[in-house]
Amino acid sequence: MSSPPLRMAAALAAAALTLTGCAGGTGTARASGPAAPVPAPAPGPVEWEECGKGFDCATVEVPLEYTDPGGEWIPLAVTRHRATDPDRRIGSLFINPGGPGVPATETVESIDAAKGEGPYSPDVVARFDVVGVDPRGVGESGAVRCLTDEQRAEQATEDRDPSLPGGKRFGELLAEARTFTKGCLDHQSHEFLASLSTDNVARDLDQVRAALGEEKITFYGASYGTVVGPMYATLFPDRVRRMVIDAPVDTGLWQNDPLRLLDEVSRSNEETLDAWFATCRSEGVKACPFGDGDPEAAFDRLITELEAEPLEVPPTEGGSPGGTLDGAMALEAVRAAAGVRTLWPTLTAGLLAAERGNGRGLLFVASFVTVAPFGGPFATLQEPHTGVRCADWPDLGDLSEHRAAAKKIAARGERLGSRAAYSALNCALWPAPNEDRFTRELTGAGAPPILVVGGRLDNVSPHHWAEAMTERLEGAVLLTREGVGHTSYRTSGPCVDAAVDAALIDGKLPADGTVCDDAPAGTTRPPAP
User: Fold this and answer.
1) Are 239 and 384 in contact (CB under 8 A)?
2) Regarding beta strands 73-81 and 55-63, do their DSSP bridges make them parallel or antiparallel, or are they unpaired?
């Protein structure tokens, strides 16, 4: 970790600019905590290096703590995809793909302008430099590490019991949490871990904005990115040009009641599985032969059989690593696939194959498709995910609250509830508390109206979170997408895509309460929860 050159001169320059009201760095006062941040020095211009056709990469340094801008600074990785129509370029579109823990730089790198493919439409890619900043503690910005390679390998093959909340006895889960949190301090400083909060991420984005020379940014955030966006709009409302948030988190729960938040995600996981069951029955055995008309009974029977006699899946050359498919692992696969409508045929095929003794399909899904916020046995994002959550969330040190939440989940008798139970236990033992945690309500007051996009049946972000977000954000407009899936833009159809593009490019919002139904003709509509 290093300091930017000529920091003292920059600090003096920033002080002078602040006095004249022309500062370009972050300067909004924190509304909670023991100390308000001192304005950070205005950063110098970004020094880009080309890193692919149409792509540039750079490092921008920011204060570790905005309350001490003269102290340690840390580097952030930044990648941009240059606007393909530079003559009509609007500005920079900052993105956050969620997690927390998903590297934004990798998301930007997935843009394929030549084919018109990727997470953003050709029209958006033409008009904006799409900018991804790996948040502190994520990706190339010092990704949080808490486990050794050996411990990660052990975790990937651990034996969990789906009949137990959390998959193991409480004493074992607590011992694992102690090992995990000790490892976090073994790999990172206390100060760094305590700095991973979303308000610091928002301030970091504003430092990058200033380094780019932009007066305002356009922002698109998905999943956890819908915490980052409202945080930025609340701290820096006059620096928002347009904003869209997709599959929103209930920021009130995120800031104040994370155990309830995780409980509601567990319910959403179960609702998407129930929707698959209902659709399987309604489409009939020709379209969905699993269970011969009674998929629930067949599913429960299969999970019991796999837990009693797991299937060994040998590795394939250049393909999947192989492993063991037991009942717990099969539930991980189902939890992932049930929440993605396009994976339902894969889910059906995998369950049928497992009934016949072939576990490769389900093991592949469990290995390569993870679902926030519970992670999974192969989830490489677990460590940064945990670091950000624990920095944002209130004190969770009362273990009786975790026991009560797990008991509540277990009492519902859900098929997928086990993973949710005790999934915040690491934060109960977190060794680097954030002493100046941001607690002000995220209203975005003073920013332009924000477009909130919520899915009717989202396995991670229930629709009522989108409704709550729309009520909380000043002047926000709600767009609802019918159907199953987490996030809607570029995954559901032309109705959502056109609305998001219009909001980002032209600032035109649909009427509040607009509903998009882009289901293909002939598709059976899952019942609403």
Assistant:
1) no
2) antiparallel
